[in-house]
Design brief:
This protein has a single domain, classed as Alpha-Beta Barrel (TIM Barrel), CATH 3.20.20.70. By secondary structure, the chain is of the alpha/beta class. Helix 7 links the parallel strand 3 and strand 4 (180-182). Strands 1, 2, 3, 4, 5, 6, 7, 8 and 9 form a nine-stranded parallel sheet that branches. The protein starts with 7 loop residues before the first helix and ends in a 9-residue tail after the last helix. It has helices spanning 8-16, 23-30, 37-52, 95-107, 126-135, 140-155, 168-174, 207-219, 236-253, 280-294, 342-351, 377-383, and strands at 57-69, 112-117, 158-162, 180-182, 224-230, 256-263, 299-301, 321-325, 355-359.
Amino acid sequence: MPSLIDTPTRILARVLEGGRLSIEDGVALMGCGRAEFPALLHAASVVRDRGMGDARWVTYSRKVFIPLTNLCRDVCGYCTFARSEKDPLAHTMTPEQVLAVARAGQAAGCKEALFSLGERPEERYPSVREALRRLGYSSTTEYLAAMCDLVFRETGLLPHSNCGILTRDELEILRPHNASMGLMLENVSERLLERGQAHWACPGKAPELRLQTIRDAADLGVAFTSGILIGIGETLEERVASLAAIRALSEETGAVQEVIIQNFRAKMDTKMRAHGEPSALDMARTIAVARLMLGPEMSVQAPPNLTPDAYGFYLLAGINDWGGISPVTRDHINPEAAWPEVREVSDITVEAGFALRERLALYPRYLGTRFMRERFAGAIAAWTDESGLVRC
């Protein structure tokens, strides 16, 4: 633990001078009191602004969400997306359904197709294996790769897949057809895998497997989004340790293009329906500590739809991105939380002293590097200006 003289005030002064935030420092800042909270937000904003330079903009991605299948081998205590094979709401989209959603997104000016799906459902459900066989595929990964390819060929939308842990072989199947990919770390705590905890009976939530997926992706030149989910029963130490693990992974691989700080939302059809939700203040503290821990160059985002009455507050805590906002599809992971209108997000962003800019699924700093697939170069060049963001 921090020494008696290593107070939040001293820690913030040291970080603003270029010092590195330790896990102990982060925990101390997470517990800072009312008098120190404004200084925490100020420090996070200063560090964020250093990474911006003269560009005073906050970004978002205009995307369409494609829930390829909501069957999953994991049974997270908080998830309303995943269904069992006997659930009447269980589904696996056909290629025709996938294209219909993608074309609606194309018509609405979207640039990204985010594929969200359960992890390896064929390992748990015979019906999924049979459905894949009828479609002509032996695995969900193969089917996902084919649908990513189909969407790009037919609509030009840049695919971004979020499908759980992957082996290196699976990543090699998906790599040619994805502009970027995503996998939330959620938390590094092995304790959350124990009976009665949020990740009980979820083999895909083993922290080291999730970190290894991103390491393998980095070797293959795939840029990844990751992040933490707060309020699922973790301690403050576990929360900060999770941020430190993402920082170490980013420094090791260079593949982490953005970090999401996401707040747990209780849902009535889950085991954690009575579990308390993080407050906006808890979110702001966590965002600020994440910014100080991850530094000025990392993109840090928080979903605006999960705190609809307070998300503008997060700009004071150091975010520089709002994530994906869809004018077409709902947030299938949090279906109760409607997306705000882009105009509303823009107004709030401008009120805080920034401009809202649209970005692609691949962040500007990765364009023209080994993390960019050549097949997407034409579409990216047609959409972006010299900043690497979408032309205004």
